[in-house]
Design goal:
Elements (H helix, E strand, L loop, with lengths): L5 H13 L4 H11 L3 H6 L2 H4 L2 H5 L4 E10 L5 E12 L5 E7 L5 H17 L5 E7 L8 H15 L8 E5 L5 H15 L23 H16 L8 E4 L4 H12 L3 E7 L2 E4 L6 H10 L5 H7 L4 E4 L10 E3 L9 H9 L4 E3 L8 H10 L2 E3 L1 H4 L2 H14 L6 H25 L6 H20 L3
Parallel strand pairs: 3-4, 3-5, 6-7, 6-10, 10-11, 11-12
Antiparallel strand pairs: 1-2, 2-4, 7-8, 8-9
Family: Belongs to the Glu/Leu/Phe/Val dehydrogenases family.
Pfam families: ELFV_dehydrog (PF00208), ELFV_dehydrog_N (PF02812)
Subunit structure: Homohexamer.
Length: 449
C-alpha cells in the first residue's frame, strides 16, 4: 500500500473489501493504481467524479452452469464466466479461457487488464473476458464440441458485434471458436461473423490473427531496441511456453536475426543452443499435441530437456514470458538480470510478479508490460471485425503491416506518456497511464453510467 497515492488508498481498500479472495484481480488493480499517482495529482477530477472507482467495478458479471455429456454418457458440470468490464470505447472485447484454474478472480483480472490493452491499440473496443474451468486436455473432439455447444447456449444471449465480441485464449483455439460460432449461428439463425474473432480463414477469419500476439510482442521489443539504436541481430532470447504466442514470438525473433534457445511447457523446458527448430516445434505442439520433451527426443544432438526447473536459468539478453500469469518470480528476475538480460517483453498477461518487476527496474532491465506488448492479438481481432463489417478480406502482408504499425504506435504512446509524467523509459507506467486516460475521458464524456 505504501506505493499508492493517498487518494487511491480508499479505492484499493474498497476493491479488496468488495472482491474477497480474488488475488489476481487485486494484483492487477494495484499494479494500475500504483502508476496513477501523477495522474491524480494533475487531474483530481478522476477521483472526485469516481471515474477510477467505476473503472474497477465491472459493468456486468455473468456466471452460469455448463452441463454436457462425456463420451461415456456421464453428465459433467462446469462453470462458465463472462465479465463485461468496460464499454466506454466500444463493444466488450476479450478472449475466452478454458482451463481448470479459471474462477471469477482470474476472469476479472484478465478483463481489467483488457480495458487498458484495448485502449492502447487506439481501436474502438472495450474490455471484457470470459471462460470456464473446463479442461480440454485429454478430451475428444466430440466432447469439446458438446461442451462448446452447451457453453454457447447460455452465452449467446449476451453477445453481438456491437455488444460483446469474444475471441480465443488459453485452451480456446480455432477448433473451439468453430464449435462456438456454429452453435451461435444455429441458435440465432444469423451469420454474424463479427460476433467472434479468431475464426478460420475460410469463414470470416483474418490473416495474421494466429501469429498476432507473438509477432506483436516481438515488434514491441524491437521498437525498444530501435530506441536504443540496437536490433535483434545476434541477440540470444528465451521464450517461455510453447503454445500459440510462444511459437510465433520465436518465429518473428528468428526472422529479425535473433536466436531463441529455449522454450517450455508445464512439464519442463528445452534448451537448443543451435536455435529452436520451429517446424519441429509446430509439429510436436500443434499437430501431435505432445509434450515438449518429444522435441528433445526427436531433435537429439545438443538439445536438452530439463524436467521441471526454471527456464529463466537459461542466460539470454531478451526474455519473453508467454505462458501464464505470475510465472516469473523475483528469484527468476534476479537470475535473468545477473545473466545479462536487458529486455523483458510480456507475451502473457501479467506473467511477472510485482516483486520481479521491481527487481527488474532496480537492475536497469526494461520491462514491456503485457497490456502493451501483447496487445497485437486483440488489435488483429479488431482488424478481423473491420473486415467482417465491410465483407472484406485482406492479404497477410497488408494485415501484418497494420499490426506492425499498431505496435509501433503503442510503443510511442507508452514512451511519450512516461516522459510526460516524469518517468522516462518506464513502459509500465507509460502503458498504464496512456491506457487509463483514454478510457477515463470517454467515461467522463458519457456521463454517470
Amino acid at each position: 500500500m505504501s506505493e499508492l497515492n493517498p487518494k487511491l488508498h480508499a479505492i484499493y481498500d474498497e476493491v479488496l473489501h468488495r472482491n474477497p479472495g480474488e488475488a489476481e484481480f487485486h494484483q492487477a488493480v494495484f499494479e494500475v493504481l500504483s502508476s496513477l499517482g501523477p495522474v491524480v495529482t494533475k487531474h483530481p477530477e478522476y477521483v472526485d467524479r469516481a471515474v477510477i472507482r467505476r473503472m474497477c467495478e465491472p459493468e456486468r458479471q455473468i456466471i452460469f452452469r455448463v452441463p454436457w455429456l462425456d463420451d461415456d454418457g456421464n453428465v459433467q458440470i462446469n462453470r462458465g464466466f463472462r465479465v463485461e468490464f468496460n464499454s466506454a470505447l466500444g463493444p466488450f472485447k476479450g478472449g475466452l479461457r478454458f482451463h481448470p484454474s479459471v474462477y471469477l478472480g482470474i476472469i476479472k483480472f484478465l478483463g481489467f487488464e483488457q480495458i487498458f490493452k484495448n485502449s492502447l491499440t487506439g481501436l474502438p473496443i472495450g474490455g471484457g473476458k470470459g471462460g470456464s474451468d473446463f479442461d480440454p486436455k485429454g478430451r475428444s473432439d466430440n466432447e469439446i464440441m458438446r461442451f462448446c455447444q452447451s457453453f454457447m447456449t447460455e452465452l449467446y444471449r449476451h453477445l453481438g458485434e456491437y455488444t460483446d465480441v469474444p475471441a480465443g485464449d488459453i485452451g480456446v483455439g480455432g477448433r473451439e471458436i468453430g464449435y462456438l460460432f456454429g452453435q451461435y449461428k444455429r441458435i440465432t439463425n444469423r451469420y454474424e461473423s463479427g460476433v467472434l474473432t479468431g475464426k478460420g480463414l475460410s469463414w470470416g477469419g483474418s490473416q495474421v490473427r494466429t501469429e498476432a500476439t507473438g509477432y506483436g510482442a516481438v515488434y514491441f521489443a524491437d521498437e525498444i531496441l530501435k530506441t536504443a539504436k540496437d536490433s535483434f541481430e545476434g541477440k540470444r532470447a528465451v521464450v517461455s511456453g510453447s503454445g500459440n504466442v510462444a511459437i510465433y514470438a520465436i518465429e518473428k525473433i528468428h526472422q529479425l536475426g535473433g536466436t531463441v534457445v529455449a522454450c517450455s511447457d508445464s512439464s519442463g523446458y528445452i534448451v537448443d543452443e543451435k536455435g529452436i527448430d520451429l517446424e519441429l516445434l509446430k509439429e510436436i505442439k500443434e499437430i501431435k499435441r505432445d509434450r515438449i520433451e518429444a522435441y528433445a527426443k526427436t531433435r537429439g544432438g545438443a538439445t536438452e530437456f530439463v524436467n521441471g526447473g526454471s527456464i529463466w536459468d537459461v542466460p539470454c539478453q531478451i526474455a519473453i514470458p508467454s505462458a501464464t500469469q505470475n510465472e516469473l518470480h523475483r528469484d527468476h528476475a534476479a537470475t535473468l538480470a545477473k545473466n545479462g538480460c536487458k529486455i523483458v517483453a510480456e507475451g502473457a498477461n501479467m506473467p511477472c510478479t510485482p516483486d520481479a518487476v521491481k527487481l527488474f527496474a532496480d537492475a536497469g532491465v526494461t520491462v514491456a508490460p503485457g497490456k502493451a506488448a501483447n496487445a497485437g492479438g486483440v488489435a488483429t481481432s479488431a482488424l478481423e471485425m473491420q473486415q467482417n463489417a465491410s465483407r472484406d478480406s485482406w492479404s497477410f502482408e497488408y494485415t501484418e503491416q497494420r499490426l506492425a504499425a499498431i505496435m509501433k504506435s503503442i510503443h510511442h504512446r507508452c514512451l511519450v506518456t512516461a516522459d510526460e509524467y516524469g518517468a522516462p523509459g518506464n513502459y509500465v507506467l507509460g502503458a498504464n497511464i496512456a491506457g487509463f486516460i483514454q478510457v477515463a475521458d470517454a467515461m467522463t464524456a458519457l456521463g454517470l453510467i
